[in-house]
Design a protein that fits this description.
- With 178 residues, the protein is of the alpha/beta class.
- Helix content is 33%, strand content 21%.
- Helix 5 runs parallel beside helix 6.
Length: 178
């Protein structure tokens, strides 16, 4: 594992119960169990002061395409404090900051208020082909320098994980895959 640079942040995207196990949730990643120990090691290397964890929570009042989305996934429409949305053991308490958003992409006002306009960050988390991708692209587009820790990410399937990494790799040098 590469040690973090002094100005590098670790962003662990959505390491939550709802994504942890396909037997518990239709959104569970079969890759999650293997990626969590790597996420934990990265969080230890960065320390809580340079680690941020994001959480996805459902908000069916967003409107637009979110209405039909939640029609397809009604199990996810639960309160923010439901156990499905809890950060998994091993990462709970690992970050100095937690950002909760009702969207796939987490790059927005809350993250920019912590990281600044053009940060360097390492991304880990789930799902590589949804929330990690949807966070990486707009962050890079606004000038952030992104390193995706491939082995600390979990896709919805191994094939989708690979495809998402390949897609993000097309954005080099703004996004690099490690």
């Amino acid at each position: 594992m590469r040690l973090p640079a002094d100005d590098d942040w670790l962003l662990i995207v959505d390491p939550q119960t709802i994504f942890a196990d396909p037997a518990l949730s239709p959104w569970g990643s079969p890759m999650f169990a293997a990626a969590v120990p790597v996420m934990i090691d990265l969080a230890a290397a960065y320390g809580p002061e340079r680690t941020i964890i994001t959480r996805f929570v459902a908000d069916p009042t967003l409107g637009g395409s979110w209405g039909p989305y939640y029609d397809d996934w009604p199990f996810a429409v639960v309160a923010d404090d439901d156990p499905l949305y809890a950060v998994v053991p091993g990462l709970a308490g690992a970050a100095g900051h937690t950002v909760t958003e009702p969207t796939f992409g987490k790059w927005g006002g809350w993250l920019r208020s912590i990281l600044g306009t053009h940060p360097r960050m390492t991304l880990a988390g789930v799902s590589t082909d949804c929330c990690v991708l949807a966070t990486a692209l707009p962050a890079a587009d606004t000038g952030a320098t992104i390193r995706v820790a491939a082995d600390a990410c979990a896709g919805s399937t191994p094939e989708n994980h690979r495809k998402a990494l390949e897609l993000m790799g097309l954005f080099a040098p703004q996004i690099t895959i490690a």
